[in-house]
Specification:
The complex is a heterotrimer of chains A (about 375), B (about 260) and C (about 280).
Chain A: H1 8-24, H2 34-40, H3 42-52, H4 57-66, H5 71-84, E1 100-105, H6 161-167, H7 197-206, H8 209-220, E2 228-242, E3 251-268, E4 276-285, H9 289-302, H10 318-324, H11 327-335, H12 342-361
Antiparallel strand pairs in A: 1-2, 2-3, 3-4
Helix pairs in contact in A: 2-3, 2-4, 3-4, 3-5, 4-5, 7-9, 8-9
Chain B: E1 12-21, E2 24-34, E3 39-43, H1 50-57, E4 65-71, E5 77-79, H2 85-94, E6 96-99, H3 113-123, H4 129-142, H5 159-171, E7 177-181, H6 189-206, E8 209-214, H7 217-223, E9 226-231, E10 234-240, H8 241-246, H9 251-258
Parallel strand pairs in B: 3-8, 3-9, 6-7, 7-8
Antiparallel strand pairs in B: 1-2, 1-4, 4-5, 9-10
Chain C: H1 11-26, E1 32-33, H2 47-56, E2 62-67, H3 74-87, E3 90-91, E4 100-104, E5 117-121, H4 135-143, H5 148-161, E6 172-174, E7 178-180, H6 190-193, E8 199-204, E9 209-213, E10 219-221, E11 248-252, E12 259-263, H7 266-273
Parallel strand pairs in C: 2-3, 2-4, 4-5, 5-8
Antiparallel strand pairs in C: 1-9, 6-7, 6-10, 8-9, 11-12
Helix pairs in contact in C: 1-2
The chains are: A alpha+beta (about 375), B alpha/beta (about 260), C alpha/beta (about 280).
Chain lengths: ~375, ~260, ~280
């Protein structure tokens, strides 16, 4: 005797219990702490903060732990939490020329004021698995490494490469809008087309690094006609400043780590305008260098309309890029296929059966 | 081959049409009247400005200066260069048509021939499948496409047939003004003659007005009542087709005419 | 759930969504863009519906949540629990007792009343998306009422299949003006949209659009005069309650492919079997 299936609630509760067990894993293994994640899986934390649009290392670490290491899920957790946070104001734009620099490189000149500072980077490592890192048995002691004392952060502000080019008029000028118009916020308003560069950059900052990486890569391979140069990449700490109404002047409320990339692209010129280099810009939280670089590549590709270039490649298709860059949206919609669709399917079954029956009786065309 | 104007007012009166691309001139100070039932040819080499004129009038390019007064079905006159997008698109679907040089640009390659022809009818509110299909069959007949191709996808059509399908798609709502951009440009020479004959017949039967851009003087002679000869963005000679081609006044026109290969 | 506002969303956000809803009600069938928030559920799993419900729900409401017509499918359970925790309102499985119904992919068989609100979960709001991927272009098409291409699609179906081959999410014309997607309800449910006494709200969270059909508004499924819109029919009746007029789910009961048909609307079926409940 068929009884309609009940017990959806019980099933869900049990699923959550199983998940909590799976998350913990073998109880004999020490539980991972937020501090460990935040310190020793720092680049995962940086990515989650960047795509989650919240600078808070501890929260990001918690999200990673709760998500069992699935970074898409962690970004989702962080963003959902962000929705509930009250806002009490907007900060001043951060000033990356005032950065406490820990890494700064440029591919455009061999040497330049301030020098090339490598900082902590994988770039020149040989990708050989280092079994020393495998560590001791659980419960044992790790031989402590001789910690290298950190170098003093550089004192004088280091001028930007693009500013040097700017002084000679070799690179397109980039003037901030002076009209006092508030910058839109993609987390409060929907994306509209055509959208301005500010909205595009917000979207790219939150966008999935893998997707942007593929698009940026495609522009280098001929799906786009630009040869980019890494004008400047800098990593370090900047102050976040807020001007509370009561004070009327800005105060520093936090210090955050950011990575900034300015790409310098092939020159453009026309009968009316002299040849100049053009720009692409990328900015990410933490040490997210790859993200900052691909963001700059895709930013430049999407500027095709402003710069009078014919959009010919997917990376130049604004709607395509900006609608599909959000991995929380993408993941949700892809995974929604797991939801019951049996009613829609039933409709299709009825239709297909009818079509087949009708085809059987129709005269051949 | 001179038609009698059917009204006192030209269907389209163009004055001072100018298009600049930065420093470069697309067309400069072009003016003419187009009467109901008349075909006007814009001839010249590449870069003469004939395409700029057509694109500005068809609403695909924004003119830098000038006006173009169109005499609408309801008797009102509207400057189509200043028309907002909504009424312009409406006109483009009903009272105007654009025959593109490459028929693939003017067709939906992913739907059947019948759907291609029927679309404009559906766009203006026709809701009877049987009637749409009958009209589509009728038009396929008029453009000499075998009627049993009505359910075929255009990808299976030859170049000449595609162009004829495009023409059927354009004419089904009986537009009064047709823009043609090198209508035979993409076709084999052997196929061109037949298409030109067809066009000539349709224009006469339906009393269409048309502006035909072409670099091919033979096409101009066959289709157009009057010609505007363009060079470097300007009209350098105009008049009845036969007069301009048989007795060209301007040295450039003489050059053009004399360089046409004789069959 | 301490620390969260009633119905989870902050009041500013609710106000923003209500403004979008008002606009949607004023222009039946028109998609109003809104600043969709990240919710604790995945995009694609009903965040649009949840945001609309969260913005209109009040402490006196009685809430019903269904998915595929059933109250106890997993996602319906999950969403109902979410609202129970964040609002404390009464919940019900009875369509006639609910003031607010959130639904995925079905309209209940029990007719709705004036004063009830039904919130639909919408995956893709744009009926022209198959024809034109660009949002900038589809907005123009709606503004200019250039719906010819929608009928081209129907024409093609009739030409190739002898009938329209769309089984669910069948496009409709609302109030004689906007073409709308009713969400993936089976076309069987389309007639229920026409002149429905209830207020019908549609939320697409990921796509960030809200639209509405006010009470008593005309909603016509697109068709041709000589190929009018028709709905699904079954030879069978519900094996549990005997209904011959409801949408039936096909259930496979044994390894040999034996099947039976039961009402998709679990409440409707239960009422018919135990009317005194």
């Amino acid at each position: 005797m068929y009884v309609a299936v009940k017990g959806g609630e019980r099933a869900i509760e049990e699923a959550h219990r199983l998940l909590a067990d799976a998350r913990r894993g073998d109880p004999a293994v020490p539980e991972i702490t937020l501090r460990q994640i935040e310190q020793q899986l720092a680049l995962a934390v940086d990515r989650v903060m960047t795509e989650g649009s919240v600078f808070d290392r501890e929260l990001a670490a918690l999200a990673i732990k709760q998500a069992r290491g699935d970074l898409f899920e962690a970004v989702f957790l962080l963003r959902a939490y962000r929705t509930t946070l009250p806002r009490f104001g907007a900060s001043e734009p951060i000033d990356t020329s005032d950065m406490t620099i820990r890494r700064r490189i440029s591919a455009t000149f061999k040497d330049l004021p301030g020098g090339q500072i490598l900082g902590p980077t994988f770039d020149y490592t040989h990708r050989l698995l280092d079994f020393d890192l495998a560590g001791p048995d659980p419960g044992g002691e790790t031989p402590s490494r001789q910690a290298t004392p950190p170098a003093d952060p550089l004192d004088e502000p280091i001028p930007r490469v693009v500013d040097l080019l700017d002084r000679e008029g070799l690179i397109e000028a980039e003037e901030p809008d002076d009209d006092g118009e508030p910058v839109g916020d993609l987390t409060r308003e929907p994306l509209r087309f055509p959208c301005g560069r500010a909205a595009r950059l917000q979207n790219l900052a939150r966008g999935d690094e893998g997707f942007l990486l593929a698009l940026g890569y495609s522009t280098q391979r001929g799906y786009g006609r630009n040869h980019p140069f890494a004008g400047e990449i800098r990593l370090g700490e900047v102050d976040v400043e807020l001007s509370p109404e009561e004070l009327g002047f800005p105060i520093a409320i936090a210090s955050i780590t950011v990575t900034e990339c300015q790409m310098v692209n092939q020159f453009k010129g026309s009968a009316s305008a002299p040849a100049q280099f053009t720009r692409g810009y990328g900015l990410a939280f933490g040490e997210s260098e790859r993200k900052a670089m691909v963001m700059a590549l895709v930013d430049r590709a999407l500027r095709c309309a402003e710069l009078g270039e014919e959009p010919v490649s997917p990376a130049q298709d604004e709607e395509f890029v900006l609608y599909h860059s959000d991995n929380v949206e993408a993941s949700g919609f892809v995974q929604h296929l797991k939801l019951p669709h049996y009613v829609d399917f039933q409709s299709e079954l009825v239709l297909v059966r009818n079509l087949r029956a009708a085809a059987g009786t129709r005269p051949a065309a | 081959m001179t038609p009698m104007p059917m009204t006192q007012v030209p269907l389209l009166a163009v004055r001072g049409l100018t298009k600049r691309y930065g420093e470069r001139v697309g067309c400069l100070d072009v003016g003419f009247d187009l009467w109901s039932g008349e075909v006007l040819g814009l001839v010249g080499e590449s870069g003469s400005g004939k395409t700029s004129v057509l694109q500005c009038l068809a609403g695909r390019l924004e003119a830098t200066a000038g006006c173009a007064d169109f005499f609408q079905r309801d008797g009102t006159i509207v400057d189509i260069l200043r028309l907002p997008e909504a009424p312009r698109r409406r006109l483009a679907r009903t009272d105007w048509a654009m025959v593109q040089q490459n028929p693939r640009d003017g067709l939906r390659m992913g739907v059947t021939a019948g759907a291609n022809v029927g679309e404009r009818l559906m766009a203006v509110g026709e809701r009877h499948y049987g009637r749409i299909r009958r009209e589509a069959l009728d038009w396929l007949g008029q453009v000499e496409i075998p009627q049993d191709r009505i359910d075929d996808l255009p990808g299976t059509f030859s170049g000449g047939m595609l162009q004829r399908l495009q023409i059927a798609r354009c004419l089904v709502t009986r537009p009064r003004l047709v823009f043609m951009d090198e209508p035979t440009g993409a076709l084999d020479v052997s196929v061109q003659a037949r298409l030109l004959d067809l066009l000539r017949g349709l224009v006469a039967d339906l009393g269409l007005s048309a502006i035909v851009v072409t670099h091919d003087l033979a096409v101009a002679r066959l289709l157009a009542h009057r010609l505007l000869v363009m060079k470097d963005g300007e009209v350098i000679e105009s008049g009845l087709t036969d007069q301009v081609l048989d007795d060209p006044q301007h040295p450039y026109t003489q050059l053009l005419v004399s360089s046409v290969l004789q069959p | 759930m301490s620390g969260y506002n009633f119905a989870y969303l902050d009041e500013q956000t609710k106000r923003m969504i209500r403004r979008a809803i008002l606009k949607a009600v004023a222009i039946p069938g028109y998609q109003v863009p809104f600043g969709s928030r990240e919710m604790p559920l995945s995009y694609g799993w009903g965040t649009g519906g949840v945001q609309v419900t969260a913005s209109v729900i009040g402490p006196e409401d009685v809430l019903k949540v269904i998915d595929q017509g059933a109250d106890d499918t997993t996602n319906a359970v999950s969403i109902r629990q979410f609202f129970a925790r964040t609002t404390g309102v009464k919940t019900t499985t009875r369509t006639d007792r609910a003031t607010l119904i959130q639904t995925r992919h079905r309209i209940p068989e029990t007719p709705l009343r004036e004063g009830q609100i039904m919130v639909f979960q919408v995956p893709i709001p744009e009926p022209l998306r198959w024809l034109e991927p660009r949002e900038s272009e589809t907005r123009k098409i709606h503004a200019l009422e250039e719906y010819g291409a929608m009928h081209v699609r129907l024409y093609e179906d009739i030409t190739l299949h002898g009938r329209v081959a769309t089984a669910y999410d069948y496009p409709v014309r609302v109030n004689g003006r906007y073409v709308m997607r009713p969400s993936p309800i089976p076309k069987f449910d389309n007639p229920k949209l026409d002149r429905n006494p209830a207020l019908l709200l549609f939320g697409a969270g990921r796509e960030k659009r809200i639209y509405a059909v006010p009470s008593w508004t005309s909603v016509k499924s697109l068709d041709f005069k000589d190929h009018p819109f028709t709905i699904e029919k079954w030879e069978q009746s519900c094996a549990l309650c005997g209904a011959g007029d409801s949408f039936l789910d096909e259930v496979i009961v044994d390894d040999k492919g034996g099947r039976m048909f039961v009402c998709s609307d679990t409440d409707y079926c239960a009422r018919r079997r135990e009317p005194t409940r």
